[in-house]
UniProtKB/TrEMBL annotation:
InterPro entries: AAA+_ATPase, ABC_ATPase_HisP-typ, ABC_transporter-like_ATP-bd, ABC_transporter-like_CS, MetN_ABC_transporter-like, P-loop_NTPase. One of its GO terms (molecular function) is ATP binding. The lineage of its organism: Bacteria, Bacillati, Actinomycetota, Actinomycetes, Kitasatosporales. SMART domains: AAA. Keywords: Amino-acid transport, ATP-binding, Cell membrane, Membrane, Nucleotide-binding, Transport. It comes from Streptomyces bikiniensis. Residues 1-22 are annotated as: Disordered. It is a peripheral membrane protein. This is Amino acid ABC transporter ATP-binding protein. Signal peptide: none annotated. SUPFAM superfamilies: P-loop containing nucleoside triphosphate hydrolases. Residues 1-14 have a biased composition (Basic and acidic residues). It is found in: Cell membrane. Gene3D superfamilies: P-loop containing nucleotide triphosphate hydrolases.
């Protein structure tokens, strides 16, 4: 936990060492030289990625390229073999209370909603606040109700997850993540398991979050969302970041053959 990878050089604190580029105070998530293996598979290869505060980064790429693994390393659901990951200037700790706290700074929404089926919608959104953030029950309930309203499911608060549609459940999952006041939200294909008519209601909530200034990393096949909400598109293939650019630039003028090939496949159906 000593974080030997963290520079204690006082120049860094001033963010303007003479020889290196200034480290912007706005860098929120910084991956540097990150490598990860699953046995013989080198699933993340020398990943360098900086996400600034308020930025919306869409990650795309072929199946198996490492997108989910990348997300999972950012909140340490997966460990890494080498490199560093910092959230708001702090390296991710290995384990313990500090990890639980830092992890709660990173909200995560998965393809499957992972709500507690035996708890009501309201309880699902209150739970983390009470257990991790140590919020009083009354305050947790007020906040949960406000968040459920914000994502458009306020009237569903007393139901159980199975009584909601997929789109509603996913919006509850977003509210639950937001209840922890995360610094960054990670979305891993949040609409992939939804019936088509429910995709937009979830994307609209995400669009609104982006407009409200939330820092977001979004793995998605929804290119419309990428075009309209992303500040940057990161294209991954075979465990590497192959290219990254603004959506306009990436979609109109992909540079690598891998990206051209990928886009020709997904944009034609
Ligand atoms: N826990 C694991 N153990 C072993 N291999 C894994 C594990 N998780 C993922 N992998 C492998 O790592 C590679 C990257 O997987 P990952 O889920 O990150 O890809 P992805 O880009 O999210 O793909 P998809 O678009 O299909 O979701 C794949 O080859 C996958 O089989
Ligand atoms: Mg995936």
């Amino acid at each position: 936990m000593s974080g030997e990878s963290v520079s204690k050089d006082p120049k860094d604190a001033l963010s303007k060492g003479p020889q290196d580029t200034p480290r912007a105070a706005d860098d929120l998530v910084v991956l540097s030289g990150v490598n990860k293996h699953f046995g013989a598979l080198h699933v993340l290869q020398d990943i360098d990625l900086t996400i600034t505060r308020g930025e919306v980064v869409v990650v795309i790429g072929p199946s198996g390229s490492g997108k989910s693994t990348l997300c999972r390393t950012i909140n340490r659901l997966e460990s890494i073999d080498s490199g560093t990951i910092t959230i708001d200037g702090k390296p991710l700790p290995q384990e313990g209370k500090e990890l639980a706290r830092l992890r709660s700074d990173v909200g995560m929404v998965f393809q499957s909603f992972n709500l507690f089926s035996h708890k009501t919608v309201l309880e699902n959104v209150m739970l983390g606040q009470i257990k991790v953030r140590k919020t009083e029950k009354k305050a947790a309930e007020e906040k949960a109700r406000a968040l459920l309203d914000r994502v458009g499911v306020g009237t569903q608060a007393d139901k159980y997850p199975a009584q909601l549609s997929g789109g509603q459940q996913q919006r509850v999952a977003i509210a639950r993540a937001l209840a922890m006041d995360p610094k960054v939200m990670l979305f891993d294909e949040p609409t992939s398991a939804l019936d088509p008519e429910m995709i937009n209601e979830v994307l609209e909530v995400m669009q609104q979050l982006a407009r409200d200034g939330m820092t977001m990393v979004v793995v998605t096949h929804e290119m419309g969302f990428a075009r309209s909400a992303a500040n940057r598109v990161v294209f991954m293939a075979d465990g590497k970041i192959v290219e990254q650019a603004s959506p306009e630039e990436f979609f109109s003028n992909p540079r690598s053959d891998r990206a051209k090939d990928f886009l020709s496949k997904i944009l034609h159906h």
